UniProtKB/TrEMBL annotation, chains A, B, C, D:
Record text on subunit structure and interactions: Homotetramer.
Broad enzyme group: lyase
Binding-site list for NADP(+): 48, 54
Catalysed reaction equations from the record: 5-O-(1-carboxyvinyl)-3-phosphoshikimate = chorismate + phosphate
Gene Ontology CC terms, in alphabetical order: cytosol
UniProt cross-references to CDD domains, sorted A to Z: Chorismate_synthase
Biological or metabolic pathway of the protein: Metabolic intermediate biosynthesis; chorismate biosynthesis; chorismate from D-erythrose 4-phosphate and phosphoenolpyruvate: step 7/7
Organism from which the protein derives: Aquitalea magnusonii
EC number annotated for this UniProt entry: 4.2.3.5
Pfam families associated with the record: Chorismate_synt
Protein name (Swiss-Prot/TrEMBL): Chorismate synthase
Region forming the signal peptide: none
Binding sites annotated in the UniProt record for FMN: 125-127, 238-239, 278, 293-297, 319
Cofactor stoichiometry and binding remark: Reduced FMN (FMNH(2)).
Length: 366, 366, 366, 366
């Protein structure tokens, strides 16, 4: 299938440009009978939407989602669920001057070379606005995973620029504009972000996403390992430059005697594996971490070229997030939900729906 | 498709267990007319094969590849290419004691829970032996990419445990057992590995893989971004726990004014993007880095459980690599080749075969 | 991918219920640079729309299509094209009585058993209304095939019930309500259809679809043969019960000396193959024929059961086509266009864009 | 995925040329725990193998299958099952004269134009020899469907040339060389086939395949309807030119009052639908019929051209089936098994494994 569909059984097909009439997606393969409403999806969208604090873009979009199909009398019917978000705050005048040039760090150059044509308004298809539909689709996956298996998926920011953010409690993550799990760091972050903004610059970030209560057995080796599909999903998010599972890059200096998680009758003694062994979930928490690059659009003069190859200098003014990582937490949660749901369905297709039982009976015919 | 096929247009379907009759793969979608021989494929396999130095497993497999189909009079015909490698040095007696128990850090536990049955001999399907067929398939992709577009794909080790390995020259990478790009570090590495082995332990590693001469335009946003598919491919390799593109995790502390690569009439002024913007190749080098966990099989006593959940203590003796990362370089090269070839074909399907020309003509009908 | 996406490279993802808010689709993988407008798509939709004569359903839907994405300044950009058709004439009161029962010949019984829930309004997802989006997507494929390769795709009715309709000329097909290629038969068809309607019954039909100027070389053996994908596409249309390529079932009594098309320096001497040999296009016309069952909704009393398994008698009144085959011609054309376009892209992915040249050079590297 | 893999969850990837070293396939996605042996697969292969009577090709291949992976201690492990059949009776001298010419009715012309190169020995990849691996893979699907759901899949010949073969009993189908379900017709068929052979000609055939005990609910509308996937599978078999489900082309002249199967508390009153409504199985027998063209290789002089376009006359001598339809019955059974197994897995992925229960509970969360 083409590049705008993800998943094998629980598929999301995304469409829409930043400043076109609408963005949206089609979610196919959702099990029937799930209670879901536009309001529930909207709640997830509102966690990601712009304009919620001075630290994110001031573009004001209601991002109101409409369910076009696949839900009848409040429940999914098993048929495709189409979700539509109309674009309302488009201000394309802000972007008119970039049609003939390539913004550094953006996809302008590559889209133009690939397709020979591009929609320059607000980055067109390459805008992070597209990720809103992932959050909407992810809301469905999150709910099903929670209802069917008790899976809980949550994310938080672990670092912005030089500022590390310790994990204290999930309780405060949604009560501050940074998705920080330690609200004592919030004043420091506010000052830090203000200084970044004043210096007309931007900064990178690091996120962590965790899925709890994932049953043992999800993942399809050798290629469609659960961790491989998670890496694919996270790296498909705009601005992500690195992905780690469990110990991640820290494993380079670890010894086998430290990294390999021992088993005890009470469970695993540690979780350096990040909840995945051999590409299959272990029943422990799925632990994912990712790096997000600094926003490319900054108000400093930067060198670039125009379509004819002439050198130019450009500054990008407008309503940009000084740290795109801030709003990425709900997106990363959504992508993890999409991957897990796809694998939940793949697992029960081949192996039946017995992963939650322990112990399984060897020799069963699935 | 199921989990043992990768790629959309240039697909590799892998099969085989470590101690079964054979491992192999079917490569489908290869363009016709490519000159390829078993000998060329064998050369790549020999770079990965066990027993080449005291620092890798002493299992001795010739890993002789046979081409079963798809090649006629020395050239590919466009039909599926089946590659077969018979297993010869199986010694299943070495592994008999593990059928009832789960080795820490291995996939024994997850395979057994997922499938309710598993082939315990040498790790069965979860053995890194499977990666030999990826190297074989990758040899075909490498050759086509080189012949058709001049793409060159090479990898080298950048760190083993605490020992960083600087990049000096590609010339020495294949002349030492560590795929080190600086042979002055080799004596230090030999001592280091000897000490690891003597301590009955193992250690992690970090690799870098680079693709040069990739045309601008490869990659299929928004989900099948080139970087997303590379992350998928690398994370599907046994023991990989982290993947970076370009600056990777270093971008967390970068400013936008540093990270965003400026453009000049002579080309990009830097390559923090790692050759990919918006999920599409920029024409610069594709830069990928990955972390590989320490070998799980070590000769120290470790806690685990048996199938009935009783606590046990196990030591894994046998012929194991003290650093599985060492032999991973050819595998990572192969996986990068598979992804790039798939995307080369996907690109010319949609956009025609014009990416190599500059400038493209806006408004063309592809 | 799930069941509502078709195609590998040129994909169509369909959504929507007969009486929900909207139907639509996402077309992904379209080459960039193609000039396309909502008006052009609308023209194809209007050929299929209800209410155009007394011989089809009197439901009146404008079926107005909106392009939501993927087109910028009148040309495709290579990004997904979302098409939306709002439902306006829903009259769900007509259908309320069927929620608890299963209409004979309809999908009510199977949807309910499969999903455990169904949208009963107008057949929900199983309504032929869904095929409107196929016609819309097909309009894009038709135009690209015509512009890029000169391919022309046309269909006509060859039989309604007992009345065979000879082929006279393509010119009259769109000037009568039956898509008949011989307008002298039209009065007979009108009388025939009136008598069917008066007898409160319905009748089957047979269609033929032809693609001219298809280059030699499209089709991907052994499974994704061009004819196999055409059969899949046609059989996926509501009410189709049989598909033939070329001679079709007539080949059962043919001799090899008759059926096997001889080659001459001027081309093939006949076309029993229907333009496909070994699953690959020959360069001759692609010839497809199909059978469409009589409309299941008729105003006669019919036996059925309710959800509890009790026997009932039901008559289906309302606005139904007495011959669903009549409006199927544009749908079959659209499906053939979708298959051909997908295969055009698949072919040039693997073999390059050289199929139109004759002769090819053996030994080329594609 | 490329054209040599079929299925979404239960996939078969086929490889091999008629006169290359081997043919074979990789079966991926098979549920674990199924008891299967090479002997069981061999039994199905022996039903199709050449040389069993004077009415089929006299090529003598043992067609001995080897299981290379995916089965441990007699049971499937859930990992890919590779099946290998070495080619032994290749006699490539028989075929040397055809490398420069195109046999009428064969794929020589299209393969050469598509790929620019072809393996001419015995038809290479386009040979019906490839279908042996489908039968081998189908044996696994057949067994699982039978064990898990009690599904029984059987086929028989219904017509050879002008000779219709009534259905009397399944018991005799495997006791005569024609897969006839009425052995009283066998002497007539033997005479008929002898006369065809003496006239140096060949003839077409019609087959019927039936699946019993298929649960209600399999099939994935709107595109991957069960009937659409069956049509795809059957049309992918060499020489098939038409496919029917249920009433098939007979529905053209049927009335809705006749065709639409009524429901009663005891079940459906008829089966014109062929066991599928709205693309989903009804629980009735799945009924499929197909037309197979006459063998293209005949010993009569036929007009053709060579690669340079010069006119030639060729006769095809050698060991050809005078009616390729005769050996097609096991192939059609196998393809139906592959489709049903894939849909069984797809169904339980989305809807859970409850289709066998009646009635289902509306509102369940699957």
């Amino acid at each position: 299938m083409s590049g705008n569909t993800t998943g094998l059984l629980f598929t999301v097909t995304s469409f829409g440009e930043s400043h076109g009439p609408a963005i949206g997606c089609v979610v196919d393969g959702c099990p029937p009978g799930l209670a879901i409403s536009a309001e529930e999806i909207q709640q997830e969208l509102d966690r990601r939407k712009p304009g919620t604090s001075r630290h994110v873009t001031q573009r004001r979009e209601p991002d109101a989602v409409e369910i076009l199909s696949g839900v009848y009398e409040g429940r999914t019917t098993g048929t495709p669920i189409a979700l539509l978000i109309r674009n309302t705050d488009q201000r394309s005048k802000d972007y008119g001057n970039i049609a003939e040039t390539f913004r550094p760090g953006h996809a302008d150059y590559t889209y133009w070379h690939k397709y020979g044509v591009r929609d320059p308004r607000g980055g067109g298809r390459s805008s992070a606005r597209e990720t809103a539909v992932r959050v909407a689709a992810g809301a469905i996956a999150k709910k099903w995973l929670q209802q069917r298996y008790g899976v809980v998926i949550r994310g938080h920011m672990t670092q912005i620029g030089e500022v590390a953010i310790p994990f204290k409690s999930w309780d405060v993550v949604n009560t501050n504009p940074f998705f920080a799990a330690d609200d004592s760091v919030v004043p420091q972050l506010e000052d830090y972000m203000d200084s970044i903004r004043k210096s007309l610059d931007s900064v990178g970030a690091r996120l962590r996403v965790v899925a709890e209560n994932v049953p043992v057995g999800w993942g399809e080796p050798v290629f469609d390992r659960l961790d491989a599909d998670i890496a694919h999903a996270m790296m498909s998010i705009n601005a992500v430059k690195g992905v780690e599972i469990g110990a991640g890059f820290a494993c380079v200096t670890q010894r086998g005697s430290e990294h390999g998680d021992e088993l005890t009758p009470e469970g695993f003694a540690s979780n350096h594996a990040g909840g995945i062994l051999g590409g299959i979930s272990t029943g422990q928490d799925i632990e994912v971490s990712m790096a997000i690059k600094p926003t490319s659009s900054i108000a400093q003069p930067r060198r670039s070229i125009d379509k004819q190859g002439n050198p130019i200098v450009m500054e990008t003014h407008g309503r940009h997030d000084p740290c795109v990582g801030i709003r990425a937490t709900p997106i990363a949660e959504a992508m993890l939900a999409l991957v897990l749901m796809d694998h939940a369905l793949r697992h029960r297709a081949q192996c039946g729906d017995v992963a939650v039982e322990t112990p399984q009976i060897p020799g069963r015919i699935s």
